[in-house]
Write a sequence for this structure.
């Protein structure tokens, strides 16, 4: 990746602090995720040359766009950027918008033909002469994409491209992006705050917080195994607790943990020595409710009991907060299908038991969890 | 009707608008997008003619244009005539008095262009100059046209500054507004009435164009 693809390393202390570093190979789709204000868009703008961070480098296919005192203007970078609000030229037709990005040297007829071809590529054939205000949000987004591709870009940047359209259109556009990227052999950087979108579309994902890249990897890895409690919060890990490592059993592939009087078993995670205090977390999907009528073998896996502190029907599911051992400060959040909740008589104040699945139990370095209060992704502290 | 005065007024109005247009583009664009120290002071200075009594502005311009002043001497050494009480002096005074009428609509015109749209132009590979012609100017055009029309109409009706700087020399500095005053003083109500009605009609049409443009600028207006 030294000479091909995109290499970004940016540092700056103000106005928005940045300490970001990542790479994106040809044909790869990288998602930059993080809460609002985490610097995602600033990074995208720095790649495009629209802002100049204090220090760092941006290289693409061996060319230095920024670094070693050099700073290439946006005109010479050959970057395709789809803005969040598309930023189409309102006084030009769809075709005019695309033609505006085609090489000036191209003959008029050739420009029109190239624009038509690009608009057909984004499924907008026949709408060449419409102006942006005569197009729907999804169609405008496609024009913006065609315009971004018209420059034959060396890198494609997408700034929350699906945030301004309705859900049906969003699904369709996401599907089209997934299809289209198979034909694009350039690095694609997608900025999004939607974790599901990142998981569905990206090959790799970079978690950003206050301008700093915290973790990078395949989306499912990052979502399942956050590096620390802060990343866990940012990727919406609902259940985070403190515990203590008791022992490792390499042969059985397990690590035993003590938590608030409960003995828990996790998949083998030898990085944390016996006796070490750790943070541990589990996603709601790995908390399985015990059925009252039919006990099963799985119930022996990390059984935990408590009182239902909160029960909230939520569409076809019900969000449940279990006060483990009856203690309101030990909140375990999970959800169950509404019919399962009904069959098991779940309601506030009722006792319930769940199993915490071993492979979902993820250990992280110890940090005081209270320090994460107020961080984005952190639920507001409950009133006493 | 004093057609000579009307012709002079129209010449002055067109001249003022044309001289101010490039200045309005430069100043309006800079004020819309640049951030610099003292910007509020610059904006206040440019807006000053809006609130200053025309006679005050006229007085200072007259002093500045006088053959004894450095500017007056410089002008006279080059052109051979005085700036005060000449059409050229009137034009300079009119340009200064109309700065806010040209700069403010131009500034609004450029402010209406989203930053991302300009950035998109650069990312399309357009140079600053090409982006100006292909994107900025067409989008700011309604604002610039408003600037032109407002300047034109305001110059037609200008009285105080014109009288102070130009006086009342037929064919040189007597504009339609001065002629109306002149006729009314001479109790020639008919001539004054015809001239007044003509100016009223021209001004109304000009202002109507401004409002019509403003409506046309809004897509669903």
């Amino acid at each position: 990746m030294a000479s091909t693809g995109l290499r970004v390393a940016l540092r700056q202390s103000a106005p928005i602090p940045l300490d970001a570093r990542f790479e994106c190979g040809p044909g790869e789709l990288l998602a930059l995720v993080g809460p609002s204000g985490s610097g995602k868009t600033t990074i995208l703008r720095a790649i495009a040359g629209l802002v100049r961070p204090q220090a760092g480098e941006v290289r693409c296919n061996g060319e230095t766009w920024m670094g070693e005192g050099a700073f290439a203007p946006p005109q010479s970078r050959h970057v395709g950027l789809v803005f969040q609000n598309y930023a189409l030229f309102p006084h030009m037709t769809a075709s005019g918008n695309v033609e505006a990005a085609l090489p000036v040297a191209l003959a008029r007829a050739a420009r029109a033909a190239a624009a038509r071809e690009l608009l057909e590529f984004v499924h907008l054939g026949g709408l060449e002469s419409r102006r942006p205000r005569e197009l729907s949000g999804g169609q405008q987004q496609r024009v913006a994409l065609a315009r971004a591709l018209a420059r034959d870009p060396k890198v494609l940047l997408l700034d929350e491209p699906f945030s301004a359209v309705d859900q049906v259109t969003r699904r369709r556009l996401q599907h089209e992006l997934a299809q289209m990227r198979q034909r694009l052999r350039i690095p694609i950087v997608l900025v999004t705050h939607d974790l599901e979108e990142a998981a569905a579309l990206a090959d790799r994902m970079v978690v950003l917080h206050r301008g700093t890249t915290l973790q990078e990897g395949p989306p499912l890895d990052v979502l399942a195994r956050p590096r620390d409690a802060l990343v866990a919060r940012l990727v919406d890990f609902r259940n985070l607790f403190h515990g203590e490592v008791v022992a490792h059993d390499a042969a059985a592939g397990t690590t035993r943990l003590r938590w608030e009087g409960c003995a828990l078993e996790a998949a083998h995670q030898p990085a944390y020595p016996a006796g070490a205090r750790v943070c541990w977390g589990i996603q709601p999907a790995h908390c399985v409710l015990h059925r009252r009528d039919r006990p099963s073998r799985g119930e022996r896996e990390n059984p935990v009991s408590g009182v239902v502190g909160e029960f909230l029907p939520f569409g076809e599911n019900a969000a449940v907060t279990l006060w483990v051992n009856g203690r309101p400060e030990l909140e375990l959040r999970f959800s169950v299908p509404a019919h399962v909740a009904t069959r098991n008589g779940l309601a506030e104040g009722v006792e319930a038991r769940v199993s915490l699945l071993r492979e979902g139990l993820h250990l992280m370095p110890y940090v005081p969890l209270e320090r994460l209060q107020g961080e984005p992704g952190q639920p507001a502290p409950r009133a006493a | 009707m004093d057609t000579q005065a009307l012709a002079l007024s129209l010449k002055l109005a067109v001249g003022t608008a044309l001289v101010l247009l490039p200045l309005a583009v430069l100043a309006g664009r800079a004020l819309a997008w640049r951030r610099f120290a003292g910007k509020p002071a610059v904006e206040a200075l440019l807006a000053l003619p809006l609130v200053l009594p025309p006679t005050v502005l006229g007085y200072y311009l007259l002093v500045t244009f006088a053959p004894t002043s450095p500017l007056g001497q410089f002008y006279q050494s080059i052109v051979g005539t005085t700036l005060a009480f000449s059409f050229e002096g009137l034009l300079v005074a009119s340009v200064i008095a109309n700065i806010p009428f040209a700069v403010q609509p131009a500034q609004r015109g450029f402010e209406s262009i989203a930053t991302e749209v300009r950035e998109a132009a650069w990312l399309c590979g357009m140079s600053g100059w090409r982006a100006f012609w292909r994107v900025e100017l067409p989008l700011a055009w309604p604002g610039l046209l408003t600037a032109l029309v407002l300047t034109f109409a305001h110059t037609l009706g200008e009285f105080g500054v014109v009288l102070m700087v130009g006086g009342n020399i037929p064919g040189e500095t007597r504009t339609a507004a001065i002629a109306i005053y002149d006729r009314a003083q001479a109790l020639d109500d008919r001539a004054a009435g015809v001239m007044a009605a003509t100016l009223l009609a021209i001004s109304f049409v000009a202002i109507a164009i401004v409002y019509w443009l403003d409506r046309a600028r809004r897509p669903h207006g």
Observations:
- Residues 3-217 of chain B form a domain with the MetI-like fold fold (CATH 1.10.3720.10).
- The interface with chain A takes residues 114, 116-117, 119-127, 130, 134-135, 138-139, 219 of chain B (CB under 8 Å).
